[in-house]
């Protein structure tokens, strides 16, 4: 069988993958490419999650692509609007025709002899798989397992007579009108579900083991909406994007340099929302500092409004077990429920669970060092996208996609077919650090052992700092003495590489 060949394979047709394809089609139009998507539609997270109220937890002027202005009035957008935005970007750059749906990439094998990846993908048909060969891979498969969310082992689950639902797999026909609902969790998903369900549910109770920092902001950006009236769309978008990036950076840095002051301000805001008699210390005061985990954004105070109205209640404590009728706390209190929603998080999945083999050797990614937080030591011709945990995901995704285009162009200009990050002599004794530091969220901490390492100096660090990354990634030299360029393009008649027929 002769496998199909393209210059670039992009794995994943979500926000990152579609963005990478748009950048590639604009900056490297001569490159052939395919997007391999395991599901039957584009959109990734925004196509998968269907729970009530699904929305962004970042403003769309930074979560949106740098090349496509966000034009809607609402800056905190609902899931269907974001999905439409992704689809529109794909259509505008003619990306759709390059997507292979129902292709789950399971294995990628590199041959240094041919300077080629051979990719195997399940197609969903028993015993059938597709094989694609390419010169370069861009992994845009996200960071979590699409097949199953994280569900802790709750004692007595089987005894519960009602429905237990994880938001990652929301039933299309779920009717919760007038029902007693318990939501377990206090992250962004829980904060979104509660106000969205409160109008129809009989009552909704959020059970949290520990609190989360919650901040309310308007879902519209009046400055952005004003600028669009007086300036060209792209100019207005660029200014708004710059403004919001600076604001994100300010809040994060302030959280690190003056955490107690930021904490005091956040709790003051919560007290103003819920009144002097509400137990803010118990229900909205975390045991960690601001931005040790993501702040939870609630647009237009919707969560606080649901609590004030009496339609929603927050309970803080540890769960003892499920009962026939609901959830029993270690305190002895039982919360009766018809439906329990386990908003307990995601299962992190590195590089989509793909097995990578380089010249016959399986890559153990926890033993690699990450180069600029997007390539890996001794793994050639592969870039992966992992966004920021302290800012909008797409800020990093855009930088990564731009870098991939610069790298591909450099290889063409120099006639090299292979680029591989290599540890230099001075790098071999650097301190190995966790790939993400100072971030205590469970979905990261549970799987830190399967992530690559970062070093203690550039370019082997994962900065989680957009301003610094612009210098390292966007402005840094491609040929920096760390990327090894090899495998020159064969000239006609050259015999320096064995032919496939040999």
Going by CATH, the homologous superfamily of the largest domain would be FAD/NAD(P)-binding domain
Count helical runs. Answer: 13
The tally of strands reads 25
What value does the average pLDDT take? 94
The description of the largest β-sheet is: 9 strands, mixed
- Using the 3D structure, state the CATH architecture of the largest domain: 3-Layer(bba) Sandwich
Termini gap = 17 Å
Strand content bin: 15-25%
What does this structure look like?
The strands form seven sheets. Strands 1, 2, 3, 4, 5, 6, 17, 18 and 21 form a nine-stranded mixed beta sheet that branches. Strands 7-16-8-9-12 form a five-stranded parallel beta sheet. The model is unreliable at 495-502 (pLDDT under 50). The protein is built from 13 helices and 25 strands. It has helices at residues 15-27, 45-48, 60-63, 79-92, 188-198, 222-230, 233-257, 259-274, 280-283, 302-308, 393-414, 442-445, 466-474, and strands spanning 4-11, 33-36, 99-100, 104-111, 116-122, 129-139, 163-165, 180-184, 203-208, 214-217, 296-299, 312-316, 319-322, 326-329, 334-336, 339-342, 355-358, 361-362, 370-371, 375-376, 382-384, 416-421, 433-434, 453-454, 483-488. The protein is α/β, with parallel strands linked by helices. The protein is globular and about 80 Å long. Helix 1 (15-27) packs parallel to helix 11. The protein folds into two domains: 4-146 and 347-418, FAD/NAD(P)-binding domain (3-Layer(bba) Sandwich); 157-342, FAD/NAD(P)-binding domain, CATH 3.50.50.60.
